[in-house]
Task: inverse folding
């Protein structure tokens, strides 16, 4: 990209609130340099004229690109080989055109070594409440670690709580992680996460469609959520209260045709209430392990293994049943009388437990002889 | 019921493994006394002859009825006004006839003051693993208390763990509770629950289709589960491992056209894994509160109230956001500068939190003036 083009993209990134489909169409038709010139010269009409009126004279492109250079970042545009064309193609869905922000970004300001198109080929969003519980942070870490282990990148919004736990664990496991910001690339938000965002920018990717210096706003959070959803093959809500921004990301994922998953939790926890609502409404799939998410983002035929069966069902036995169970021989069979003797119990107290063990598939009986059922 | 009839029912209750649809048809056609006489005289053919061959000479009716009398119990039959005709009518579903045990009981041995037909008009089954976690027992108690508070009877199987917590809480809340046993009415199983079953028999109802002295067996547990499901408008699985008898009760409830509900829990808990599988498979509805179950068993139009919204969403705010929130006036509006002064923060640190509060619907802005949004 030559300097004039780069300056034009930077100018266009600030000249109106992204995403603007009219601006995108103009750039597509005439290229960024001509588009920028026409806007600067007020040679556009109707809504695009109105959308660019307030800022058309502001040209901080050089300063913005200096900020980006100082951060070691790059300005990504649709001509770049790491532009996530495939992920963003979902914005072509007709239903999205009507939706506020239902368009792809014009450019992305990026800092970090990860290759965006490669990352989005195999990525999941882990999102949730900032007021995460210890349970929520633990489960988020389990999911992030499980995804990274299976070469799935972890995408999130860099916020406190679930987002932070997701990014931190991905970093700790040497996995790829992407933070999509609602502010400029040089505006760490929340400020308590500056160090975390810095680390993500050194080993993963920090992305935003807003030019340097932009502070977050409500609209920007909503627009950002759509990118988190779009760049991910599936969105997993780890914890969410009944009013949660994570529900907005989940709604975007659904609208974009991505799989939406939610993790259940204790019904006594307000931080899981939003997840339970989504599962109960059938707007999210219940997932309990990273492997189930990989099934959604993974290559065709990459199925989650069956859940780990408990290595033994003996946890579920009471003392008498365990005593009776242990009175059965490893090989061969015993009569009830023999079992009673070995268990040190009257025969009458052995029958009920044997029936219960039989019901649980742990023992079986033939011709009055009881034996252990081999572990499946 | 005269003595001969009562003796005949007691004899028929023991003469073959219940439920036996051929025996039921014979009794329906000829009455219990004639049916008993024909079986005793081997004047039956085919499968009914075979099913009653081993026990046709055993007549312990007097002794069995003595046991029942000593317990202060009664033998319920289809002629009784408390026979749960409506609940048992679901066994007429064609798909059930093919299913083992897919038939109503012939008689029910009962101890306790509750009126069975009345109870089943408004009842829910609370079932689950015997190896309940503290969470599972707590949530079971919440559900049992919530059901009882709404005049819904709590039906369960009298086992350790979830069943026990359900019965105990229902008793503690002076609610109606029914324990359906897989053994004779005089055989407390598990033995550690003798006192609990005794208390249920004094204020609620203990039921079984097996004659006195019968010990539980695998088949009897499976047959018992169908009665727990049939006598309840909905079955709620509170906790269940991946192999759990509760799944069998849930399957019966589905087959009988009853609503099946499951309560989610921590994904880190093996005791919730069975619930999560049922919810994920869409074979059970996710429920989090008793009120949602009442909707399933209750009168038409008796809808669960909306979930309690947190009285405040402030739980979800970080310290800075809370500071900014509290810097807004109770009435009227303030500019960002005024808010910054009052919060003791630079303006630049107020904007992000304000945007976040706006996103959460807690504050709103007009012409640069910010105000609190009234609680909905």
Result:
């Amino acid at each position: 990209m030559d300097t004039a083009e780069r300056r034009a993209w930077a100018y266009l990134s600030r000249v109106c609130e992204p995403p603007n489909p009219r601006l995108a169409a103009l750039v597509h038709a005439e290229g960024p340099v001509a588009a920028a010139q026409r806007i600067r010269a007020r040679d556009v009409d109707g809504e695009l004229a109105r959308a660019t009126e307030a800022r058309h004279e502001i040209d901080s492109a050089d300063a913005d690109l200096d900020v980006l250079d100082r951060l070691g970042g790059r300005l990504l545009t649709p001509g770049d080989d790491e532009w996530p064309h495939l992920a963003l193609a979902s914005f072509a869905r007709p239903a999205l055109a009507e939706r506020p922000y239902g368009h792809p970004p014009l450019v992305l300001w990026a800092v970090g070594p990860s290759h965006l198109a490669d990352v989005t080929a195999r990525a999941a969003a882990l999102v949730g409440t900032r007021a995460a519980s210890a349970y929520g942070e633990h489960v988020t870490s389990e999911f992030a670690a499980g995804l990274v282990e299976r070469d799935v990148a972890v995408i999130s919004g860099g916020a406190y709580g679930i987002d932070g736990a997701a990014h931190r664990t991905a970093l700790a496991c040497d996995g790829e992680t992407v933070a999509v910001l609602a502010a400029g690339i040089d505006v760490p938000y929340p400020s308590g996460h500056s160090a975390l965002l810095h680390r993500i920018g050194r080993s993963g990717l920090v992305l935003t469609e807003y030019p340097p210096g932009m502070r977050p706003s409500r609209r920007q959070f909503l627009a950002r959520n759509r990118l988190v959803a779009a760049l991910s093959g599936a969105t997993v809500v780890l914890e969410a209260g009944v009013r949660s921004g994570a529900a907005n990301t989940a709604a975007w994922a659904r609208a974009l045709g991505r799989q939406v998953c939610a993790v259940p939790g204790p019904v006594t926890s307000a931080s899981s209430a939003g997840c339970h609502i989504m599962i109960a409404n059938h707007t999210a799939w219940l997932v309990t392990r990273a492997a189930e998410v990989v099934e959604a983002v993974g290559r065709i035929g990459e199925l989650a293994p069956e859940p780990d069966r408990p290595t033994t069902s003996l946890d579920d036995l009471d003392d008498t049943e365990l005593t009776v169970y242990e009175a059965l021989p490893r090989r061969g069979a015993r009569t009830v009388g023999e079992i009673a003797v070995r268990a040190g119990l009257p025969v009458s107290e052995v029958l009920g437990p044997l029936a219960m063990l039989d019901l649980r598939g742990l023992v079986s009986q033939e011709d009055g002889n009881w034996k252990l059922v081999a572990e499946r």
User: Anything to note?
Assistant: The first helix of chain B runs from residue 3 to 15. Chain B has a mean pLDDT of 91. Chain B touches chain A through 64 residues (CB under 8 Å).
